[in-house]
Amino acid sequence: MNIENTKAQMRKGVLEFCILSVLKEKDAYTSEILDTLKNAKLLVVEGTIYPLLTRLKNDGLLNYRWEESTSGPPRKYYGLTEIGQSFLNELNGTWTELSDAVNLITNQK
């Protein structure tokens, strides 16, 4: 069994939740989202995040707007929709339950 594959699958499982969480306070463009994830030690490549952002937008969880940049081309800023905020609230509850259950099981002696 390949441990790296298992670790990658675990990260993928929480990536959507993490992206929505990054956007809960303010809109952000892709580089900001990636930097936040990297600072939290959740390494994600651009080839992974762009399709995920598109899917989240198509599902009605995110919207976006273009904003001019002083240091290059316009930037696409993503933000949560009302549906996205509700979805995130549900995920928060599920994460707490799941995290508590996993901690209970893995910390048994």
TrEMBL record:
Name the source's superkingdom: Bacteria
Q: Which residues form the Transcription regulator PadR N-terminal domain?
A: 19-89
Q: What is the protein named?
A: PadR family transcriptional regulator
Q: Which organism is it from?
A: Flavobacterium granuli
